[in-house]
Amino acid sequence: MHLISKNDFAVYLYCMKQFLFWLKRFFQVIFILALLVGIYHYKLLNYAFSQAKGQLKIVWNAEDCEEVLQSDDFPDSLKPKLALVKEIKKFAETSLGIRKSDNYTTLYNQHGKTLMWMLMASEPYEMKAKQWHFPLLGDFSYKGYFDKKKARLEQYELEQAGFDTELGRASGWSTLGWFKDPVLSSMLYQSKGELSELIIHELTHGTLYVKNDVNFNENLASFIGEQGAIAFLKFKFGEKSEALINYQSALLDERIFEKFLFGCTRQLSELYSSMKNESDAVKQEKKKALIHQFVVEAYKLPISSKKKYMKRMRGAITSGNAFFMGYQRYDAQKDSLAMVLSTQYKGDIKSYLINLKSRFQSL
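Request: output the structure for the sequence above.
Response:
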């Protein structure tokens, strides 16, 4: 039998001590590095924790839609819309090429409260949106908040830094498969067409979301949302139905307003290019005058819901470039998308989405 000598044992103890010493130092260095990274990214980590907390609260407190439909506690007046969501989802998955998921099979009752606020910002004298970077997810030109006070605080900080900002309520959002997105009770107060568009819009995000291209993602979801809503309303209610006629009328108003704003955006860009050597005071005065001119011109637009759109135009006065950039983000590419759908896919949304999914990698 081999015996370990005292010298061998001493060497063994020495090696073990050295190993433990350097292991301890290694973990100390890792801890310090992690602490430094945490301090450096404190704001981002705090934001991520706050968002996860808010989203989990919604997911955990959402109820199964089928149970809600049988419940006496939920308003009977909203149950037909909730039942309609199931039909919209099924149509989107079977006829439009939307990815099948468990989204919108649960409902979260907001009790009239706003759940999320969307913050957007833009350079003051350039049509350039501020970008927020999130690890793994990429760059985004908007930022969501479940806490309005935190949203207001960041809005104030951005304004102090010279940005134009806009803070608005989010009617819905997609977690891109990270969570099971519920129906929000506020959605059920929308018209049948608006509800169809919203559900299909968010489901499109869950089907395809290209990293670092927010404008394409939002324009695509807005376009598919609108076209999908028209297809569903025809399928469900008929081509001469009140639901379809009202929705198409509302879309016509929306299109007129969007095209007007795109023209406004071009005029602002031209103004900024023409006064690069002017002082900020002069730039602000000319910018303010032009935006007020837009408000006057908007009142003359041939739209049926003037009150609705004049209320929106207040955003142009208070939010400046951030207001106009919002429409670029969601609506500027719709005509080109419609051209591709019509000429290359003969209006077949399902084939169009299948092709897009084969060309782009989704988050």
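Residues 61-359 form one domain.
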